[in-house]
Automatic annotation (TrEMBL):
Pfam families: ABC_tran (PF00005), oligo_HPY (PF08352). This is Peptide ABC transporter ATP-binding protein. SMART domains: AAA. SUPFAM superfamilies: P-loop containing nucleoside triphosphate hydrolases. NCBIfam families: oligo_HPY. The keyword Transcription does not apply. It is found in: Cell inner membrane. It comes from the Bacteria. Residues 6-262 form the ABC transporter domain. Its main location: membrane. It comes from Devosia yakushimensis. PANTHER family: OLIGOPEPTIDE ABC TRANSPORTER, ATP-BINDING PROTEIN, OLIGOPEPTIDE/DIPEPTIDE ABC TRANSPORTER, ATPASE SUBUNIT. Signal peptide: none annotated. GO terms for molecular function: ATP binding.
């Protein structure tokens, strides 16, 4: 049986703000339970503002006030090192950062210090976790850059001197140079052109295979999920509403929201009109009762308005939170041009 490397239970994480004495709470992650296996690539999808970035910030132990964990656990089982990052101290998190757990944040420029040469940034990130210095450290970094098809010259460059694709490679290099067991990436390909996107994706996949790491990544681009993920999880209004093997999520979704998301993926030669999903995701300060998707759901019944659907197992590694999952039909037929992994 494959072992889990990450187990999340009953996780709630909110932005808690105080505006002139008035408390406001944005429930960005609201009761998520899930797990990720060793060597698995897990993609997280959902509309803008659904809580994807907030969720992986907790996984990456990168919360900053006013964002805080309100309930639940986020337990990693690293080699010889167990940690619950939802309650660990900064010092305990420091001990696993980069060496076991790494985080590729949204937008490579925000990670790379604009006034520091790339080589210095590598030293800041990786010298201590690797326990190397001087020439030994430099050789290790150069060897790693070579795998990423980057020349040692980049170490002398400033971030603005590199193209967007190169910067993203450097960010991936930073996140992987210590051979972490768990890599978290937020929109790793957004803002890159299609050709560079493909390169960056295959790079992440190659590195993951070579190092035997687990990867969690977020993107709103369903074609990236189709090509890269082993399993996909769908977040709607702060909740995980469905997760399952990528192929099943595309060809046999069991949540009406997933059916809409996967239907949004353009296919070559397909001119069929698909019903648009009306409305917008709800405010996370005052989400709807019952199933949060019910105001937009074509299958909603009275029960959906008042009772929260529990996550039910509907197949191997496949779970959904929908009272009417048996009635969910794919909105588009499987298509020959629709490449899906697995
Ligand atoms: N620093 C913050 N302070 C207050 N609320 C925030 C903050 N950051 C995010 N939020 C709110 O948390 C909710 C979830 O946002 P989050 O960025 O996690 O969503 P997302 O699914 O990643 O969206 P996107 O795809 O646009 O990045 C949103 O309602 C957002 O407005």
């Amino acid at each position: 049986m494959t072992q889990d490397i990450l187990t999340v239970e009953g996780l709630k994480a909110y932005y808690r703000m105080n505006y002139f004495g008035v408390q406001r709470e944005v429930r960005a992650v609201d009761d998520i339970t899930m797990s990720i296996k060793k060597n698995e690539v897990y993609g997280i999808a959902g509309e803008s503002s659904s809580g994807k970035t907030s969720f992986i910030k907790v996984l990456a132990a990168a919360m900053r006030p006013p964002f805080e964990v309100v309930a639940g656990t986020v337990k990693y089982d690293f080699k010889g090192h167990q940690i619950d990052v939802a309650s660990a101290s900064d010092k305990q998190i420091e001990a696993v950062r980069w060496k076991h757990l790494s985080y590729i944040m949204q937008g490579s420029m925000s990670v790379l210090n604009p006034v520091r040469r790339i080589g210095k940034t590598f030293e800041d990130f990786a010298a201590r976790p690797l326990g190397l210095s001087g020439d030994a450290f430099k050789q290790r970094v150069i060897g790693h850059l070579d795998r990423l098809k980057l020349s040692p010259d980049v170490l002398r460059a400033y971030p603005h001197e590199l193209s967007g694709g190169m910067r993203q490679r450097v960010t991936i290099g930073l996140a992987t140079v210590c051979h972490p067991e768990f890599i978290i990436a937020d929109e790793p390909t957004t803002a890159l052109d299609v050709v560079v996107q493909k390169e960056v994706l295959s790079l992440i996949r190659d590195i993951q295979k070579e190092m035997g790491a687990s990867v969690v990544f977020v993107t709103h681009d369903m074609s990236v999920h189709a090509n890269v993920a082993d399993r996909v999880g769908i977040i709607y209004a702060g909740r995980l509403v469905e997760e399952g093997p990528t192929r099943e999520m595309f060809f046999a979704p069991k949540h009406p929201y997933t059916a809409h998301l996967v239907a949004s993926l353009p296919r070559i030669g397909d001119t069929a009109q698909r019903p648009a999903l009306e409305g917008r995701p709800p405010s996370l300060a005052a989400p709807p009762s019952g199933c949060r998707f019910h105001p937009r759901c074509p299958l909603a019944i009275d029960k959906c308005k008042s009772e929260v659907p529990p996550m039910e197992t509907v197949g191997k590694d496949h779970r959904t939170a929908c009272w009417r999952w048996k009635d969910v039909e794919p909105l588009v037929a499987p298509h020959a041009n629709h490449k899906v992994t697995a």
